[in-house]
Amino acid sequence: MGRQEHIARSVVRALTNGSGLEKRSQNALAWLLALFGAFFSLYQLALRKIRPADFSSLRREHWELSDPDYLDSFQSSESNNKEDVLKPIGDMGFSGSTFYSTADQKYLVKSVPRYSEHSYFRDDLLTPYAQYMATHPRSLLVRICEFLGATGPSIGRLFRLAPSHHIVMENIMYGRAAAKARGDSDWEDWDLKPTSYFYPERDIADGALTSEATKNQLADEFHDKIVLSREQADQFFESLEADTKLLAEHNAVDYSLFLVRITRQEVADPTSSTADTSVVPTAPPSVPPSPPSWRTGISSADGKYVFRAAILDFFWAKHKIQPQFMTLLITLWNFVFHHGHMSITTTPDEYRERFMKMCRGIIEVRED
User: Fold this and answer.
1) In sequence order, which residues have a C-beta less than 8 Å from that of residue 284 and are 6 or more positions away?
2) Residue 208, Cβ neighbours under 10 Å: how many?
3) Which residue, 50, 145, 236, 340, has most beta carbons within 10 Å?
4) Are residues 126 and 212 in the same domain?
């Protein structure tokens, strides 16, 4: 069993059965052996749920997601191997995170390996996030369903061979595999951030010092327009304004807008505002609110596409030690070379302003 499988097994075990160390076995020797094995484990760390009552409340009371339905995504009816439930989906950025999708594609598991990020979410953002998501059903902030953390010391954690923290979140690409199996047009996606910031990989020596693979991991650009009605646009910007206000108030920067574009299949009326029912899920984890929403799919006003969107990666906070160190380095660099700030070293209010400008720039309003 490889590294990815061990990590997957530890996540699934924590979600479905607990880490196995929460309660002492009646057999003291068995408990000591389990504790000894956990300490010397390289990849399969003992994980626990952090603030489980808060996430359970969000799922059941506000997102209408029952515990049995939620846990079904992490239990395999075809295999007894826990690692088979989660499928690795490869490298998705600079953070060193591991990514998995549940076999039914409803949820993603993302590791949060940096201390500055998982401590920020736990200590600073989790309470306001939970309160906000309970009262803003149309929020574009990605829905986080669980937060897991390592329960104690281990060799794998000490040498960072395995991530110590993970989040379970909704997958707004849910339905893509089924669409592909039907032979529909493949879905397009973009991870959008303001590109006017200083990116060393792109801007130093015109990018000659880094590989194309590295540069391809930078923020995408959407060279098109999302055509919306006035009502759709107003609702979209209302949600973005409220969401980014919350993030700015808690010092978050460098978050992104994950955008999905689905080409509509042939319908009787191509100008209809009703979303293509073949790609719009009507059951959790995407609802409530009832479709259409940016979680389930918004039909463009020109009838060509269905769009989904969510705000991701809001764990980088200016007041944490690592971001402060990066800010100092870029300040010293700018003293000599005058490149300007990076998206991870700017102020929360300034980042919010540029983020909103970017979002407004990709919208075209079609008046009735």
Assistant:
1) 63, 64, 65, 69, 70, 106
2) 6
3) 145
4) no
- Asked if residue 176 belongs to a domain, the reply is no
Question: What pTM was estimated for this model as a whole?
Answer: 0.87
CATH of the domain at 152: 3.30.800
Per run of 10 residues, the mean pLDDT along the chain (length 368 residues) is 80 80 55 51 76 97 94 74 75 64 94 93 98 97 96 60 89 91 89 84 59 61 96 97 98 96 65 59 82 93 95 94 87 78 91 97 92
Q: What is the distance between the alpha carbons of residues 296 and 303, in angstroms, rounded to a whole number?
A: 16
Looking at residue 280, which CATH number applies to its domain?
A: 3.30.810.10
Tokens of 342: 């990076």
Contact predicate 327/254, CB 8 Å:
no
List the strands of the sheet with 305-312, edge to edge: 188-192, 256-263, 305-312, 298-299
Beta-sheet strands, E only, within 37-91: 47-49, 86-88
Question: Among candidates 353, 341, 114, 361, which has minimal Cα distance to 247?
Answer: 353
